[in-house]
Write the C-alpha cells for this entry.
Amino acid sequence: MTFKKILFVCMGNSCSSPMAEVIMQNLMVKTSLYWEVDSAGLRTWNTGRRPHKKCLQILREHGLRSDHFCRQFTVNDFRYFDYVVAMDEAVFKELLLWGSGNPANKDCHVLLLSSFGKNGLPAFIESLSPTHKLKNFRCAYYQIKECCKQLILSQKVDIVKYELPSSEDEDLYYANKEKATQELDSVDPMPESSNGSGLYILPPEVRSQSSSTDPSYSKALENSLLPPAMPSCSQGTQRKLCRKCGQKFLAAL
C-alpha cells in the first residue's frame, strides 16, 4: 500500500484546514490507510495558537478532537508532502504562484479540495472565518468530509474494512470465563506433605492406581489435575473492499 503525505492549506490555519485535517485523519483510520495528514496557513495570523473555538466545537459534536497548533506554510512543505490541498480558489492560486519555478515543487501536486465533488463535478465548500456563525461551520464540515471521501477514491487505493467482533461473541467469552473461574474455585486443593516441605503428594489410593497401564485412566487423571482451558476471544478481521464496495463504505461513514 502506497504511503502518502497530504497537507491542507487555508489562509490562517484556524478554521477550514484544521477541520479538514481531523476529518481526513478520521477517515484514514476507518479505511486503514494511515496516510500522514497535516494542515498549515499562508499567513502568520494564528501561528502557535489553537484552531478557532467554533472549529473545535463542531469537531467535538462529531466525536473528534484536534491537537493541532496553527503554523505557517513554507516552501519546504512542497518537498515533504505529496499533495498540497487548497481549501479555496484564492489559496489555490497563491500556492500555484509559490510553486511555479520552485525545484522543490517537482514531485508535489497542488490540488483544490472543492474539485473533488460527487460524480467528478466541482463541489461547493463554505468559506470559513472566525466571524462566521456556527451554522456555517456545520455546513462546511459535511462539505469538507464529502470532498475528502472523493479525494481518497480518486487515488484508487485499496480500502480495508476492519470488522470488530460482535457483542454476542464477547458476552459468550466472558460467560465461559466466569464459569471456568467458578469451576477452578470449587476444586479442593491437593493435600500437602506432613513434613512441611511444601510439596504436594497424591493420596495412597491414587498412587496405587496411577501404576495402572490403562491409558484412558491416565488421560482422565491428567485432565482432572489441569485447569480447564480458557476460551479465546474472537479477534477483529480486516477485509479488502473492491472499488464499488469501497464507495459504499465511504458513503456510509
The chain has two domains: 5-163+239-252, 167-225. The first helix runs from residue 16 to 31. Residues 225-234 have pLDDT under 50 and may be disordered. The radius of gyration is 30 Å.
